[in-house]
Amino acid sequence: MKDIKHYINGQYVGSASGKLFDNVNPANGKVISKVHEAGREEVDAAVQAARAALRGPWGKMTLEQRTAILHKVADGINARFDEFLEAECLDTGKPKSLASHIDIPRGAANFKVFADMIKNVPTEAFEMPTPDGAGALNYAVRRPKGVIGVISPWNLPLLLMTWKVGPALACGNTVVVKPSEETPTTTALLGEVMKEAGVPDGVYNVVHGFGGDSAGAYLTEHPQVDGFTFTGETGTGEVIMKAAAKGIRDISLELGGKNAGLVFADCDMDKAIEGTMRSAFANCGQVCLGTERVYVERSIFDEFVGRLKEAAEGLKIGPPDDAEANMGPLVSLKHREKVLSYYQKAVDDGATVVTGGGVPDMPGELAGGAWVQPTIWTGLADDSAVVTDEIFGPCCHIRPFDTEEEAIELANSLPYGLASAIWSENITRAHRVAGRVEAGIIWVNSWFLRDLRTPFGGSKQSGVGREGGVHSLEFYTEMKNICVKL
Ligand SMILES: NC(=O)C1=CN([C@@H]2O[C@H](COP(=O)(O)OP(=O)(O)OC[C@H]3O[C@@H](n4cnc5c(N)ncnc54)[C@H](O)[C@@H]3O)[C@@H](O)[C@H]2O)C=CC1
Ligand SMILES: O=C(O)/C=C/C=C(\O)C(=O)O
């Protein structure tokens, strides 16, 4: 069986401890590979390699040379597209139809976009008067922040890891990545592409392992890492924030959400159903931007619930290679336990189960997978944990509202503020509501329409900072002002 090693200083290396853990295919529960678990020794070696690489050829390259290499990395991913696709789908169980349109192309695009951006975004310059009349000139330059610790999740493994590594490298940093223990393969494979593209040794390092008391914690506790970027649960974000406080290291956190969809009576119903379907069920509901709370204006409530039920029941659940399948399993049996506990809680709290609520019958070896039914509820109280907690499964609760004010209040009622989708053909209303919903990302009559130049991140407990476009450049560089007396 294949074993997945760390990638440190341009070499694949195993753990000194010899400790390995299983990488499991969530579609059938079978072990796909064995993964080396990093101890402090491997994490330290990766950080030292990354520090040394800052002073090596990488640190001396011109911007042109560095960005040309990152274009080669993107081309390298595309050249091995099928290999990345196969690996990502084995690790996550997601449909190939989904990963081939989103995960792998975005994995490549994240390098190209930020390589181009760093070349084209200007910095400030200010002329100022001085008492002697000669004046002074201020100009700002960007410098790499240093060694960046990247801690990435399992729901969009390649996409979210490269969303951080792409701009970090474009800005001249070096990285140590700790991918999720659930989905290590594409992050490991990227090491080969980095090598082939000419990325110098030590610039891209990968250590595998778990979070607390394992590779994740060893990385965030390491004093020679200059900043951390993380996507995952809000509770984990708090732990990372505390670790980063020692030594005053910078953080960028993209955390949990419990996103609201607001559907007004003046919406285009077809668009609202299609968009809400994707936002609730795409990637088996494992998207931080997904909609788990849907608020629908009372006059169209019954029609909306009926149509969403019909659409959800039309989803085809199946393994990655099933070309007809548009919903895969959850990432693991452990995660399924969490999701099913909310399915049970909904019933206990008196929900009407509009559709789903359980585990589908899967044939043959698929019976060992982490499958769940797409699920819709109505009738829960606003304070039910099903309505307030991030479930991260293919499910949503739908509740009626009577006024625009009430819809906004409901949307803003939780401590999260990541994303929201507003469905209305009244453009004045859409702008008005978008301005008042407390979330970092608002879609109007769409969902997950992504322009990588835009600010991306959450307000309230959904995150700290923004990435995307110039905001990524802000995080991954130190801005230095140079004041020249003339
Ligand atoms: N994209 C997102 O917003 C994601 C949200 N989640 C949410 O989090 C819930 C739990 O899933 P988990 O995989 O447990 O998420 P998590 O937040 O614990 O894991 C994400 C990453 O953080 C690492 N990590 C965990 N604890 C750490 C620590 N103390 N120090 C450093 N690194 C640490 C993990 O190894 C993984 O690489 C999900 O049910 C979902 O609600 C999970 C993954 C992605
Ligand atoms: O498009 C992106 O950059 C990110 C999409 C999804 C997430 O961030 C997530 O699910 O965590």
From TrEMBL:
<dbReference type="InterPro" id="IPR016162">
    <property type="entry name" value="Ald_DH_N"/>
</dbReference>
<feature type="active site">
    <location>
        <position position="254"/>
    </location>
</feature>
<dbReference type="InterPro" id="IPR017628">
    <property type="entry name" value="OHmuconic_semiald_DH"/>
</dbReference>
<keyword id="KW-0520">NAD</keyword>
<dbReference type="InterPro" id="IPR016163">
    <property type="entry name" value="Ald_DH_C"/>
</dbReference>
<dbReference type="GO" id="GO:0016620">
    <property type="term" value="F:oxidoreductase activity, acting on the aldehyde or oxo group of donors, NAD or NADP as acceptor"/>
</dbReference>
<dbReference type="InterPro" id="IPR029510">
    <property type="entry name" value="Ald_DH_CS_GLU"/>
</dbReference>
<comment type="similarity">
    <text>Belongs to the aldehyde dehydrogenase family.</text>
</comment>
<dbReference type="InterPro" id="IPR016160">
    <property type="entry name" value="Ald_DH_CS_CYS"/>
</dbReference>
<dbReference type="Pfam" id="PF00171">
    <property type="entry name" value="Aldedh"/>
</dbReference>
<dbReference type="InterPro" id="IPR015590">
    <property type="entry name" value="Aldehyde_DH_dom"/>
</dbReference>
<keyword id="KW-0560">Oxidoreductase</keyword>
<protein>
    <submittedName>
        <fullName>2-hydroxymuconic semialdehyde dehydrogenase</fullName>
    </submittedName>
</protein>
<dbReference type="InterPro" id="IPR016161">
    <property type="entry name" value="Ald_DH/histidinol_DH"/>
</dbReference>
<feature type="domain" description="Aldehyde dehydrogenase">
    <location>
        <begin position="13"/>
        <end position="482"/>
    </location>
</feature>
